[in-house]
Fold this sequence. Notes:
The complex is a heterodimer. By secondary structure, chain A is of the alpha/beta class.
Amino acid sequence: MSSKENNSWPSFPDANLETWKKSAQKSAPNGDVDSLGWKTPDGIHLKALYTSSDVEGLNYTDTLPGFEPFVRGPQATMYSVRPWTIRQYAGFSTAEESNAFYRKALDAGGQGVSVAFDLATHRGYDSDHPRVTGDVGKAGVAIDSVEDMKILFDGIPLDKVSVSMTMNGAVLPVLAGYIVAGEEQGVKQEQLSGTIQNDILKEFMVRNTYIYPPEPSIRIIGDIIEYTAKHMPKFNSISISGYHMQEAGANQVLELAFTLADGKEYVKTALAKGLDVDGFAGRLSFFFAIGMNFYLEVAKLRSARLLWWRIMKSFEPKNPKSLMLRTHCQTSGWSLTEQDPYNNVVRTTVEAMAAVFGGTQSLHTNSLDEAIALPSEFSSRIARNTQLILQEETHIPSVIDPWAGSYMMENLTQEMADKAWEIIQEVEAMGGMTKAVESGWAKLKIEAAAAEKQAKIDSGSDVIVGVNKYKLGKEDLVDVLMIDNDKVREGQVARLKEIKVKRDSKKVEAALEALTKAAEDNSGNLLELSVNAIRLRATVGEVSDALEKVYGRHRADTQKVTGVYAAAYDSAEGWAKLQTEIADFAKDFGRRPRVMIAKLGQDGHDRGAKVVATAYADLGFDVDIGPLFQTPEECARQAIENDVHALGVSTLAAGHKTLVPAIIAELKRQGSDDIIVFVGGVIPRQDYEFLYEVGVKGIYGPGTPIPASAKDVLEQIRKSVKPA
Amino acid sequence: MLEAADQALVNDLTGAPSLRQRRALAKIITLLESTRLDHRHRADDVLNSLLPKTGKSFRLGISGVPGVGKSTLIESLGLYLIEKGHRVAVLAIDPSSSISGGSILGDKTRMERLSVLEHAFIRPSPSSCTLGGVAEKTREAMLVAEAAGFDVIIVETVGVGQSEIAVAGMTDMFLLMQLPNAGDDLQAIKKGVMEIADLIVINKVDIDPDAAMRAQLFITSSLRLLGFQGNPDHASHDKEFWHPQVMTLSALEGNGVPELWEKVSHFESLQKANGKFDSRRKEQSGAWMWDRIDAGLKNAFRSNEAVQALLPSLAAQVNQGAMAASVAARRLLEAMGHEFF
């Protein structure tokens, strides 16, 4: 046989989209080619095939990195010269332990320090405050004064190592503590580099670690932007965060829109203080979550830069740097599972790749055990190495914005930007993000998205390997880090006593009074005054109180979503049967099963509690919701007063070993022997036995479908109600 | 005769304020709300034994559309009253879902400060738990709270027409809350709720004082048009008989709460002096009896076996147009063994 081979590439017969459709029809379910692909929760149709027609007419597909509109990245060279910063977030109860961890991580290739604070610190309480007995040392390091700060950064040169601090509520005393710790190390303010989260608006929507109401909180942010613009040119005054929104259930477009709308609000705040836009815009940074929706996450970061450029253009800065969005990213903690937890390494890797393809400036990769506890030394190492492998083995960083020019990616980038822009305009029409937050509208939108997402997982229409598909018969225990909360608290209380004896209390009092006065008169700079007070050894709690006297503590207005869960759960198996069982219960006992869902202590992560409440009500339970930040005593009283059958405690911040026994004891003390207690949230398997022993009737960890927990609760209630 | 367990609850309830009293009050309300017949008999006995200790409170009904700030006002008012030495019970009626029958009861999240005070009691109830309408069980719960020594009882309900009228029909004074927004005001007049309001409170004056003032004028003139109010500046009107009034306040900032209570106290003293306080309560008791008779008859009818046997086929015939509705109704009623007109 002779071959017709010659020295040119062969030609091929014409094919167009129509002929492709015809051919694809044969294998598409029901011959429906148009609905192939995936309808995202954002309402975007991710099509099965993109062609050149999908990028026709798009304006921003042929641009360059380091130039407007910055779709392709804020710097000209991106990772080809210097890869992203590996920045692992951690905090280990005490300043001493955290310090040891940071030093070890820096030695092992970490490139910056990222501090997680405990719940009491976030909410501006000293460790000896009676409301925080169960919260000290939980989910991060306890900081009461500059003495703790000095231990935290001992041996870490603050003029060289950049420090990122996740702090929003008690942002004044904590930032002041950092400044004074640097000062006493011999480092000048202008040398300090790093970031403080300082993004209060999203706290009112999702995480709830606020102290004051929205308006004074915004004033504080204005003061911090002003102070850092003047004294700390290398420090990012704010990290505008979408992370927690996605973690709380927001889809990517919602995360994008609300985050940028928050950013816009902060810019307006700073301008209202009379600052020049170029004086601070370059120090605004962003923080996004990167979840498992790979394409969407890459496109999200590209759209974010495009949108921010568009927003900032309207403020007419002179410096192009004011138009660029620079961001930190963290892989999604929500996407991690308690079941078959080594799968989490794979999930985190995929997410890390999306963040890198999207062009992030720094990245935190989660540890595989993050769904159940604080990371152990082993899991932290794997998490860090995930990034080191991407940086040093794959050659991914060699190419700048490698997805550019992809029909799909360019189309998706523009579509996400357009969809987010619509929401940003809606926020604008309400009078800006502060108003949208105050009205509760924004929070409700996220909660509805969360309920819908949970229902899709519980009904199996969204797959999570090892949770609702391909489940393991037997789960192995993973070693987790345990914290002895009482011991941490005792140590902190002792140190507080010592400080209060040694300091010049007259001077401290005067410094605190100056703070109160500045809040009253709306004068001075609150950060400057906080630095003065902290330098004199005022505590975190005292500085917070000095302002609380004027501003008060914010109380959340809990709004309720109903019907969303049922609608998304659809007609999945077991739903109707469970509803019948609930109706039968009502007949047998004279009322519907009544359940209270509570959050205890300073843990403000209320997505889980809200979703459960909605779903239970949709099933036919009567559901009481407790206010955030309840003490066990207050919670028991509400349960008894409302005469509920069962009390469900939602715990995500490791407080369960203190708070759950406390609530059971309180129920007894207040005379109730018949209210059963169940627990949901993040609880290591190792603690199950302990909780059952103190009297808990049911424990529902991450990945428990809500209808399954509801069925169990109903059975437990039936067992416990005295025949009468 | 009370069952031993119920007697123990009654003893706790009528004793001194304590954790036991709080629990007893909660438990008795649950018993009242039960849809089981044996529970009902026990609840009747409990109520009867408590009756001598009831009636000594001021009963205030508060209603308004969702978001108008009811809970916020109740918290401010409750804190103020407890400070003055009162004991305050709040009975809140939360709407149940018509689809699932379940409900979310989140009121206490908005009364955080009040809900922890010793002299406060707050109990939200789902509206579905009351077979005979919203009013029935709340009315009884009110009596139980009185027997426990609460001297101000506030009944809170979401404004959905029917429930407002029910609440007005069981309280000494009915307070309707409005937003500073004329559209809502028109709505309220259409529903006829304005006719039963003793006091109209325009909340959130802090947000838009001008709109609040406009709303106040608008509602005041509407009341006058409807013939419920003379000129409020004519002092003679207020000397003997109460005329519905309109006031503005900010529940969130706590402004206007003392003024509100002053108006309530003025109302109370006028009503007591001119005899309307007692006559209103007597009327309410009479109406309550008839409500219960209506509900009881309906219940007896629905659970009657002969009726149950006939109902599906007759309902189907009415549905198909094969039988007149009135004929079917009489046949079903007569199935109970009486003649009906």
